[in-house]
User: Which sequence fits this backbone?
């Protein structure tokens, strides 16, 4: 029986730049950073308070998993912001919005009240977009 | 929104000055709130008191230094703003479940494994996908 999601891949255009974004701007911690002899780099991060999941920052490169055409298509989709990777939760959307904005994170929309709480939308430095949500306090 | 900017300013101040002796007066001044208003707002926004947040930041920095810097535990304790090695070790264990020495040993072993035998830390499904030639 499946008990949980342990790894989730986010495709990024450059792993070094993604490292800077997710670790230095979003404040995530590095779980594993290992490079194989053929140059494939396994880079996983996670929010500091979520110890049971790893986000894989997966490179989009022509070579092994992708042929040239597919890699180019993936890069185009990512850069155009067509891939929405998911929802990040926060204790307070408005505070986190102010902090991330001060750190240079690009937001698609400011915090707005929704039926489930407060939500803003931001992009990583590849182009993937995310919801930043804090749930309504009861 | 100005309220949030002020609270975030204080939080970032803690991030940048975690090694300094910080107290509620200093932090509330940074946020331009009264002490008690600041304390209440900070807790509401971050679900922890400023002291709890400061403590966590110090332990996070200690973990980085234990992993990547060759300093003694006592030196790290001083660098991150704890008054004694005993209080640092107790707080570290409270946060991580391990003593600083055990944490360092385990972290160094993991880093070494990742460097010398990456196929031992990368799931084989991915290692296989990225090691086969088209």
Assistant:
């Amino acid at each position: 029986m499946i008990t949980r999601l342990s790894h989730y891949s986010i495709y990024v255009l450059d792993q070094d730049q993604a490292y800077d974004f997710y670790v230095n701007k979003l404040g995530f911690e590095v779980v594993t950073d290992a490079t194989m002899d053929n140059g494939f780099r396994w880079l996983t991060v996670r929010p500091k308070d979520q110890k049971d999941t790893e986000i894989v920052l997966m490179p989009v490169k022509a070579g092994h998993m992708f042929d040239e055409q597919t890699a180019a298509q993936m890069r185009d989709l990512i850069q155009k912001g067509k891939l929405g990777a998911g929802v990040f939760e926060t204790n307070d959307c408005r505070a986190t919005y102010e902090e991330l904005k001060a750190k240079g994170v690009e937001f698609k929309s400011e915090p707005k009240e929704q039926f489930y709480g407060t939500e803003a939308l931001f992009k990583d430095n590849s182009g993937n977009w995310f919801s930043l949500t804090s749930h309504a306090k009861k | 929104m100005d309220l949030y900017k002020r609270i975030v300013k204080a939080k970032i101040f803690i991030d940048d000055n975690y090694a300094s002796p910080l107290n509620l007066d200093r932090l509330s001044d940074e946020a331009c709130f009264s002490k008690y208003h600041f304390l209440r707002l900070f807790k509401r926004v971050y679900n922890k008191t400023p002291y709890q947040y400061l403590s966590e930041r110090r332990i996070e920095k200690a973990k980085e230094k234990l992993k990547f810097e060759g300093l003694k535990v006592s030196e790290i304790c001083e660098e991150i703003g704890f008054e004694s090695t005993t209080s640092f070790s107790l707080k570290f264990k409270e946060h991580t479940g391990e003593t600083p020495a055990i944490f360092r040993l385990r972290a160094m072993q993991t880093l070494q494994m990742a460097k010398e035998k990456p196929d031992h830390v990368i799931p084989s499904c991915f290692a296989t996908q990225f090691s086969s030639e088209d």
User: Anything to note?
Assistant: Chain B touches chain A through 27 residues (CB under 8 Å). Chain B has a mean pLDDT of 91. Chain B has two domains: 1-47, 62-134.
